[in-house]
Specification:
Its main location: membrane. The structure is a single chain. It contains 22 helices and 2 strands. A two-stranded antiparallel ribbon has the order 1-2. By secondary structure, it is an all-alpha fold. Helix 5 packs across helix 8, helix 7 runs parallel beside helix 17 and helix 8 crosses helix 9. It is globular, with a radius of gyration of 25 Å. It has a domain of 380 residues: Amino acid/polyamine transporter I (Up-down Bundle).
């Protein structure tokens, strides 16, 4: 794009926007200005809710709002290391015990395989976006260029929620494993009970707070150095993982795969709670795959996105899925599923073994190390999400600032570090995990829909291609409805031939819907560098699996998710839409300055595609 033309456009926009909110100092300059902005809320919602940016704008004008650039120093092996470090600790060492004990039993191995397949399909969708538009915003940026600002904001709110809640859960689990490593059996001995607070919020964990704050300082310092530290810690951590797998298969008993410790009160078999338990377990352990999403947020700091991102994202998901399944199998062989410690399942498996107590201590130390790496990667990712959300104008601009010396989003990193530490101070795991799973599934579902929409509709600024919007939207809605019908039948229909027939009919309808869409609607664009294979079958399968796993979660999860989403909508209506309007349409000289900065870096956007 010609920079001179961009400057002329900026000047025109600035002169047209000089009257109104910006001329008066913006929507938040005074109570009276805010009152006038609220009165214009319906009109601003109509203008901003579906307003979409282009990939070029995201990589130039929007990115320029951060000031200094993030340094592009990461390669594919850094991404694989970040993926390993981010996923393994958070998944196996937090959720496996609960998923096995409460839902899947030894069938948790299959739960991890299902969740891993779902994550891999979603990883393909993320990779297409990340290669084509290598910015730090991840799913937020992908949905902003596809479905517009409101969809992106709700997704961004869920992303921040899932990262903060996940990190708080993992940090509290660190206390349990650290205690095991030094011989303290109960984590409550290291926590301070607070009388009068409700259960689940009444134990203060100062160790978790300290760990989060320390990691926050590290990631503010340097991304590349944080990656090097992560690689070292991950290498040691993988050695612990191999030790756990070997010990499980050596010391384990295959009879534990089918025999509970208390057969009088708990069912037996490899799938003690049936297929429903396996899928419920898959929905819970899906928390383990948040790490690859964090890897996609590093796209702005990757040397060669077209080569490094596909290997880093998809490769790390496949490798981690294999490790998860092997570790879950070894744990299931060590103990009957109804005797597993839900807070520290692996180290707890050796507590009662004569002469093998030292193994429990070693596993506790390894798990603590893995949790540190997962926290570091996740906190790197959450800071970049919030940084790009700040760039978009829907959150305060100071969150978007990149420090010129460290080339990191210092403000976003510090803010989220303090917020996560505050949450980890009080809240227990069972309050956090299901809400995290539902947020993760919702975001992955949205990205899978977005990659289909963009491939079949969103050809930049070409009105002719927008005629494909309605057929594509109808397909996405119809396919989601079929997936929802299948899920409801699976969950609530009584067992029998009628249920089997209806499930088969729904499956056939899903296949027919995708086949008809593929035959009748042509793709509007093809990716230049890397694209999802077998379009639209792969993203459609991701949509179906995400809807199915969402249906496996319990009612309280949806109640919490509904309240959180309603709160996010309220924030958007009362604050974000007005801040965005000021930044994009009523910004006067401020908007002009930002766009002029964008002109300076417009020619750099192509460099990210190398």
């Amino acid at each position: 794009m010609d920079k001179g033309a961009l400057v002329v456009q900026v000047m025109d926009d600035s002169s047209n926007g000089g009257v109104g909110a910006a001329a008066a100092g913006g929507s938040f300059s005074s109570l009276r200005a805010y009152g006038r902005a609220l009165a214009q809320t319906p009109r601003r919602l109509a203008r901003r809710a579906c307003a979409a940016t282009s990939p070029g704008e995201e990589m130039s004008r929007v990115r320029a709002r951060s000031g200094a650039r993030m340094a592009r120093r990461l390669r594919w092996h850094d991404l694989v290391g970040l993926g390993l470090g981010g996923m393994v600790g958070a998944g196996v060492f937090v959720t496996t015990g609960r998923a096995t004990r409460l839902y899947a039993g030894p069938g948790v191995v299959v739960s991890y395989a299902i969740a891993g397949l779902c994550a891999l399909l979603s990883a393909f969708c993320y990779t297409e976006f990340a290669v084509d538009m290598p910015v730090a915003g991840g799913a937020f940026s992908y949905l902003r260029v596809t479905f517009g600002e409101l969809a992106a904001f709700l997704t961004g709110a869920n992303l921040i929620m899932e990262y903060v809640f996940s990190n708080a859960a993992v940090a509290r689990s660190f206390t349990a494993y650290l205690g095991t490593a030094v011989g303290v059996d109960a984590p409550s001995k290291w926590r301070i009970a607070v009388p009068g607070l409700p259960k689940g919020f009444n134990e203060v964990d100062l160790i978790a707070v300290g760990v989060i704050l320390l990691i926050s300082v590290c990631i503010c310092y340097s991304t590349k150095e944080s990656s090097v530290v992560n690689m070292v810690l991950t290498a040691v951590h993988v050695a612990f993982i191999l030790f756990i797998i070997v010990m499980g298969f050596w010391r384990g008993d295959t009879r534990n795969l089918t025999r509970p410790a208390d057969p009088a009160h708990n069912p037996g078999g490899f799938f003690p709670h049936g297929a429903a338990g396996v899928f419920n377990g898959a929905a819970m352990v899906y928390l383990s795959y948040i790490g690859y999403d964090a890897v996609s947020t590093m796209a702005e700091e990757v040397e060669r996105p077209s080569r490094d991102i596909p290997v880093g994202v998809s490769g790390s998901v496949m490798l981690v899925t294999l490790l998860y399944c092997l570790m879950a199998a070894s744990m299931s062989m060590l103990l009957p599923y109804d005797a597993i410690d839900t807070e520290a399942p692996f180290s707890g498996a050796f507590k009662g073994s004569s002469g093998w107590g030292w193994v429990s201590n070693v596993i506790g130390a390894g798990a603590s190390l893995g949790i540190l790496t997962s926290l570091m990667v996740a906190m790197l990712g959450q800071a970049r999400y919030l940084c790009v959300i700040g760039r978009s104008g829907v959150m305060p601009a100071w969150l978007a600032k990149v420090h010129p010396c460290t080339a990191t989003p210092v403000n976003a990193s510090a803010f989220l570090g303090v917020f996560t530490a505050a949450l980890a101070l009080f809240t227990e795991l069972d309050v956090l995990l299901n809400l995290v799973s539902i947020g993760t599934l919702f975001v992955f579902y949205m990205v899978a829909n977005a990659v289909v929409y963009r491939r079949y509709v969103a050809a930049d600024d070409d009105d002719a291609d927008h005629r494909r919007a309605w057929p594509t939207l109808v397909f996405l809605a119809a396919f989601s409805l079929v997936a929802l019908c299948f899920t409801l039948l699976w969950q609530f229909a009584p067992a029998g031939r009628a249920r089997t027939g209806l499930l088969a009919a729904c499956g056939a309808a899903a296949v027919a819907t995708v086949g008809a869409f593929r035959a009748l609607v042509a793709e509007a664009r093809r990716p230049e560098l890397w694209g999802v294979p077998a379009m639209p079958w792969v993203p459609a399968a991701s949509v179906f699996l995400n809807v199915f796993l969402l249906g496996s979660l319990d009612r309280p999860s949806y109640v919490r998710f509904g309240f959180f989403t309603a709160a996010a909508v309220l924030v958007y209506v009362l604050y974000s839409v007005h801040a965005s309007y000021d930044a994009e349409e009523g910004g006067g000289a401020g908007a002009g300055a930002a766009a002029l900065d964008g002109a300076k870096v417009q020619d750099e956007a192509a460099d990210f595609k190398v």
